[in-house]
Specification:
The complex is a heterodimer of chains A (374) and B (294). Chain A is mainly alpha-helical. Chain A has 15 helices and four strands. Chain A has helices spanning 2-10, 20-37, 39-63, 78-81, 95-103, 131-137, 153-187, 190-195, 200-232, 236-269, 277-298, 302-308, 315-325, 332-358, 368-373; strands spanning 69-74, 87-92, 109-113, 121-124. Chain A has a four-stranded mixed sheet. The mean pLDDT of chain B is 89. Classes of the chains: A mainly alpha (374), B alpha/beta (294).
Chain lengths: 374, 294
């Protein structure tokens, strides 16, 4: 009985009932700690970061002005090249000297006077037409646009693609993380102990918040990396245009992710084994993929984009793209956000119901109707 | 005191629990025995609120159980489960904290209990790296780490070696000595017999018998007597009012029609001066179980 008296001596009075918030923060904290401890998570985050950095750096290499082409200029041909920003003239004495430089790879082309040519010059290339030099010399009429596009379409595509891929990657990564964590608790039966301790609502809320914090942290890290990258590589112009759309993207993402997380958790709760997870989470995965592909295919179609920017599943991608393209009125993101918030509230309510009803049903997959009815 | 009143549960057409009523007294170690599918796990799940009953009630000290009451229960489910990738100590601390313990106290509870259960060296090992027996000990720690006011344990002894069984017995006995009602199920009837104060026997969803172990033994105990002598007990067969059930040289098991007949047998044996022992046949829990379940 010595053990017992010893136990009695050290046992403090039992604590009071933990609050809902205490439970939720403990559960969310556990989700975050366990995820940060997973090597797979750290490696995939590292790869995602590298990909973002690489695309910023590549963007600066290909998107920026290319260096002027070096050309050898013979005699009076210099007047034709003078003041042309795309060409860097190297004066030579005669054609033979120029051709020698061309063969040595010192210059891209030789420009020499030619009396028979209407322009008065000839461009000599090595094995093919030096098109960059030719187009630099080409005579073009002046162009006037009645309605100039606000944004370069290539850039618009990049931005749409960027929002799409970030949303897609994060939603899929953290959505399946939540799904896995739900199924793991069912499969290992720890859920029975958990449910005798905390409510299903606290469990679901903690999971969604924990994973949302992680997803959000990742997005912010990516955004910070992209912004720093753009600044360092001197692409300030792009950054200025992106500013407000990035902020809207973050806001939409935060809410849209909670909606998807609740749906992922609920659908995963319907099965008891990790092997069966794919079949139930596929519909939710489709909800994430469809906006991604629509953005890529229809980024230049204002009508489709307008619809997408109001549909809750595609709004986190569609609305920021429209804001970037200058197609959205000031009230549009607010309206779309309201729709998204309402849908999220509904999704969380339905998700919680399914989650609560199916968590202890082990064995085969629980049919949706039964999961909803309870 | 934990009380169940007419608890009923149906799974579709099948009546899994039929008006189950019994009580678990404060400080009483109550063994819960029954065959496979008799309804033990269902009953325990209903007590914990993990499963809803179709009828009847569960009360603690006279008041119907609430979710807040259940939070102070300790539960070991039939289907074992802890987070496989969490460390042993971390897991126990986490569960204590979910029950509302402050971090420092949770840590102290967890390390003391794990030490006592023989997991002192495994604090930083993940659950999945433990042997099955050690996982079982960790599971018991998970049920007890928050100093529960009521303990409900489904098969706490399965998969344990004899030393671990003794350790766990000690832990449960201490909990009961602290006034906690303890309900545990087991297929190992010898352990139940040795450990429990009270017994609840369930068969086919109905309570077949319940009460103090000794009272049950008296009620269902054998009317047979066992005589062991140095000599031959063949003379027993000749005596009036005595039926010999088993016989082997100096040993015999018999039933007596009356106390007088039994006393006469003892007197006769003593007069022959050869008695080694004369006892009522020991009734095992297994025998009681078979009798009430039949």
């Amino acid at each position: 009985m010595s053990t017992q008296s010893q136990q009695a001596a050290v046992a403090p009075t039992r604590p009071g009932e933990p609050s809902f918030l205490d439970s939720v923060s403990l559960i969310a904290g556990r989700e975050i700690t366990m995820r940060l401890r997973s090597k797979a998570f750290l490696v995939s985050t590292g790869i995602l970061m590298l990909a973002v950095l690489a695309s910023v750096v590549l963007g600066s290499l290909f998107g920026g002005q290319s260096d002027p082409a070096k050309v050898a200029v013979v005699g009076s041909a210099a007047t034709a090249v003078e003041g042309n920003p795309a060409l860097d003239p190297v004066p030579v004495d005669d054609e033979a000297a120029g051709e020698q430089l061309l063969r040595d790879g010192e210059v891209d082309a030789v420009i020499s006077p030619a009396a028979s040519d209407p322009l008065g010059i000839t461009v000599i290339g090595l094995d093919q037409t030096p098109s960059s030099v030719v187009s630099a010399l080409a005579v073009r009429p002046s162009v006037e646009l009645l309605e100039p596009a606000a944004v370069d379409p290539g850039l618009a595509y990049l931005v749409a693609f960027g929002f799409g891929i970030v949303f897609f990657m994060s939603a899929i990564t953290f959505g399946s993380t939540i799904a896995q964590s739900v199924v793991e608790e069912k499969q290992t039966r720890v859920v029975e102990i958990l449910l005798s301790t905390v409510s299903a609502r606290a469990l679901l809320t903690g999971k969604v918040i924990g994973n949302s914090v992680l997803a959000f942290g990742q997005i912010i890290a990516i955004a910070a990396l992209a912004i720093v990258g753009l600044l360092v590589t001197g692409q300030k112009v792009l950054l200025g245009g992106l500013g407000s759309s990035v902020i809207w993207f973050v806001v939409f993402f935060a809410i849209g992710f909670v909606m998807l997380a609740a749906l992922f958790a609920a659908s995963a709760a319907m099965v008891s084994r990790a092997e069966d997870m794919g079949s139930v989470t596929t519909p939710v995965t489709m909800l994430v993929m469809i906006p991604y592909f629509l953005v890529i295919f229809f980024f230049d179609n204002p009508a489709v984009l307008a619809i997408m920017s109001y549909v809750p599943f595609s709004a986190p991608v569609g609305m920021p793209v429209r804001i970037f393209l200058g197609q959205a009125e000031w009230w549009e993101p607010i309206l779309s956000l309201a729709i998204l918030i309402a849908t999220t509230a509904l999704a969380v309510a339905i998700g919680e119901r399914i989650y609560r009803n199916t968590l202890l049903k082990t064995g085969s997959r629980v049919p949706l109707a039964e999961a909803l009815r309870g | 005191m934990l009380e169940l009143n007419d608890v009923t549960k149906r799974y579709g057409e099948r009546l899994a629990l039929d008006a189950v009523s019994f009580s678990v007294g404060d400080g009483r170690l109550t063994g819960f025995v029954g065959g496979n599918g008799a309804g033990k796990t269902t009953t325990m799940r209903i007590i914990l609120g993990v499963l809803a009953a179709d009828g009847g009630s569960v009360s603690l000290d006279g008041a119907t159980l609430t979710a807040a009451d259940r939070r102070r229960f300790g539960y070991m489910p039939e289907e074992r489960g802890l987070y496989p990738k969490m460390k042993v100590l971390e897991q126990a601390v986490y569960l204590a904290r979910l029950h509302g313990w402050a971090p420092a106290a949770a840590r102290r509870n967890a390390s003391e209990l794990l030490d006592r259960l023989g997991l002192g060296e495994r604090f930083d090992d993940t659950i999945e790296s433990l042997s099955l027996g050690n996982q079982q000990r960790a599971q018991i720690a998970a049920a007890l780490v928050h100093h529960p006011e009521v303990l409900v344990l489904d098969e706490p002894f399965s998969g344990l070696d004899p030393i671990a069984v003794e350790t766990v017995q000690g832990v449960l006995a201490d909990a009961a000595a602290g006034g906690v009602p303890v309900l545990f199920s087991s297929h190992q009837l010898d352990i139940v017999e040795r450990l429990c104060d009270d017994l609840v026997i369930i068969a086919g969803g109905r309570i077949a018998a319940s009460g103090a172990r000794d009272a049950l033994r008296a009620e269902h105990g054998s009317e047979r007597w066992e005589l062991l002598t140095d000599g031959d007990t063949g003379w027993l067969r000749e005596r009036a009012g005595i039926t010999v059930a088993e016989f082997d040289g100096g040993w015999a098991v018999f039933e007596a029609e009356s106390d007088a007949a039994r006393q006469a047998v003892l007197a006769e044996a003593v007069s022959r001066g050869e008695v080694v022992s004369f006892t009522r046949e020991h009734t095992t829990l297994a025998q009681i179980f078979k009798e009430v379940v039949r």
